[in-house]
């Protein structure tokens, strides 16, 4: 897992050169637009509703003394909660809607890395790729929210909250890495097999997603560059793993995906 984690981060180096070399920038125009619109929308919502949520939280404080201080803290907490939940929704909306545009990117990278052996072409239509992207990211969104709600509460508890915050970051990284890897897995695995594959290579997902989440905090630019380079990094690393495991073009595999109980 540690090796996969490190390799996933290292895969980000050289992504800009690879994008230019393969002429991939044209595929990112619509996904970047989706990312910008979605990102700006959630930032505006966080700014607009943080006060309202803060006032709601401040009602917990029943005493006069310290009410102003608690109200200020509540506004901050409200904004933080909206930002975290908004970030979760942002990631999955963007990745789901970008699926039909990212799959060709992953396919070109596979062909570049593997030559003739990597000419596996997706048989899915635009609609099917979009449907799979929505299914995968809806599933990941629900799973992520299941863990996030209690962890958000824990994160406000002194000392213990540090652990909660770290877990929030790692879980977000895992599921965003999952989404980025699926643009490649879509050509090789069905839905359940993809879930099993990512579970066995969670280090790759976390490493890729960790850089993704951190880059989103770069004002404006984060919404523009994060998706393109993270998808390229995830694709290069996922293709390498698939090739090593013999899961491309009919090679005998020593690690076939198993059925997964949802």
Automatic annotation (TrEMBL):
Compartment(s): Membrane
Top-level taxon of origin: Bacteria
Pfam families per UniProt: EI24
Entry's transmembrane regions: 27-49, 69-90, 145-175, 210-234
Keyword line: Amino-acid biosynthesis, Cell inner membrane, Cell membrane, Membrane, Sulfate transport, Transmembrane, Transmembrane helix, Transport
Main location: membrane
Membrane protein topology class: Multi-pass membrane protein
Protein name: EI24 domain-containing protein
Source species of the chain: Aquimarina celericrescens
């Amino acid at each position: 897992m540690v090796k996969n984690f490190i390799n996933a981060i290292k895969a980000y180096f050289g992504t800009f050169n690879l994008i230019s070399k393969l002429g991939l920038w044209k595929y990112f125009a619509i996904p970047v637009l989706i990312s910008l619109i979605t990102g700006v929308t959630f930032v505006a919502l966080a700014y607009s509703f943080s006060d309202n949520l803060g006032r709601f939280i401040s009602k917990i404080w029943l005493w006069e003394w310290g009410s102003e201080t608690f109200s200020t803290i509540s506004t901050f907490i409200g904004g933080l909660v909206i930002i975290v939940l908004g970030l979760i929704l942002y990631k999955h909306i963007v990745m789901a809607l970008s699926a039909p545009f990212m799959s060709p990117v992953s396919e070109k990278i596979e062909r570049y890395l593997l030559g003739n052996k990597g000419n596996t072409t997706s048989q899915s239509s635009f609609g099917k790729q979009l449907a799979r992207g929505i299914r995968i990211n809806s599933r990941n969104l629900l799973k992520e929210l299941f863990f996030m709600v209690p962890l958000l509460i824990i994160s406000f508890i002194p000392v213990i909250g540090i652990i909660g915050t770290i877990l929030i970051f790692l879980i977000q990284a895992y599921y965003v890495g999952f989404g980025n890897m699926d643009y490649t897995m879509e050509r090789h695995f069905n839905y359940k097999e993809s879930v099993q594959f990512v579970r066995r290579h969670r280090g790759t997902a976390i490493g890729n997603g960790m850089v993704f989440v951190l880059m989103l905090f770069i004002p404006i630019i984060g919404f523009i560059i994060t998706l393109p380079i993270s998808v390229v990094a995830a694709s290069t690393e996922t293709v390498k793993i698939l090739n090593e495991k013999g899961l491309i073009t009919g090679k005998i595999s020593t690690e076939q995906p198993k059925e997964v109980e949802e």
